[in-house]
């Protein structure tokens, strides 16, 4: 029955939800928001308790977890759900549900682990929507998906159907095991975090892995421009696609031209601007009913594009996902103030130096930054230092001490190329 429930959202996402202009999209969103508001005032104890005229508050992961019991509309208790989800992760068994509801844990990159729940109906809606938006044009059936992630969930398994097969690959397993299994499975679509895609591309380059995929989709991590170009070359594809998906919903995906768009047909995004282009998204998912995602403030830094996309979509085009607010580096300013530096400026200090692809930049203190990259020559190290000194001069902060160490990739941890640790 759930496979049949996937059909309508699939058709809507692929063909029906097309808007002539922003005004038409905004009218549609307003109607959906009104329906969501009416539903929550009836079914969510938290929103039912708010005065009619009250502005609904912003939420984040801390708020969600503090009010979990009264926010959700299914009577799920946080402590029981957390115990169930932790047991699933410990046993690496993800095919059970809790009182008919799928429960999962967020990866905790922001320092806090969160619980997310989905009903069977929401799983069908998610699967139909994501397949409608992401399946290659011209071929809808017969695909074999290889899906890499830290933890499986019935939400992801809901994609499996008589016409599409999904195989889950646990990132906790050794890369050699993945290569062996992929050589046998031969997927047509490969879905994995960017760092895993790079590792698999290296296996192809070294002739350990051979497969002919029609589509490669990056998830869970920021896809760096250098990695994207490398993947396009190795997989011999014109576009490496991206899915912007998190605990808070299916927020965005790339079009046929490889341009990232917000999924404004299923989520409403308010923007908290940091400058003319950068903003934090405040998400309201008007399709999700079991666990309200209403005015949920993410600490992702999105960079909007003002240019129209060749695909013709009226959905907001995103130039890049730059990082998170807690990855903004903080340096001592020359005038005694604290200078904030966006992750993109830090990346450029590495990207402006030739032949550096695998790297990680970690700020441990305002005066100390660690550069992890393998086999850097002394000339490359000097160039990196020069780039940081130039950046410090341009932005008027005291250049930190730079230390260089070896880069080690851990597939069990979400890779952040730029990270602040204090």
Automatic annotation (TrEMBL):
SUPFAM superfamilies: Acetyl-CoA synthetase-like. This is CoF synthetase. The lineage of its organism: Bacteria, Bacillati, Bacillota, Bacilli, Lactobacillales.
